Amino acid sequence: xxxxxxxxxxxxxxxxxxxxxxxxxxxxxxxxxxxxxxxxxxxxxxxxxxxxxxxxxxxxxxxxxxxxxxxxxxxxxxxxxxxxxxxxxxxxxxx
Length: 95
Known about the structure:
Order of helices and strands: EEHEHEH
Oligomer: single chain
Strand content: 25-35%
């Protein structure tokens, strides 16, 4: 997995590609921890290039979604494909 960080007019964006799984979920966790430690702005995770997602990756996304809710901060997963959108619906990460 590659994590590419950039900014747009709405705030920081983390673009991830290939696989988000138990072998690299900690890398995404560390990247998000750094962003959540900064200004209280929206954080976007671009999963458009994500090919596979296992339970460890999904757990990481859920963790940060819950943290954002607790801090009343905007956190969004963007550019999900149909398969990932279904996973997001099941886990209620689409809200």
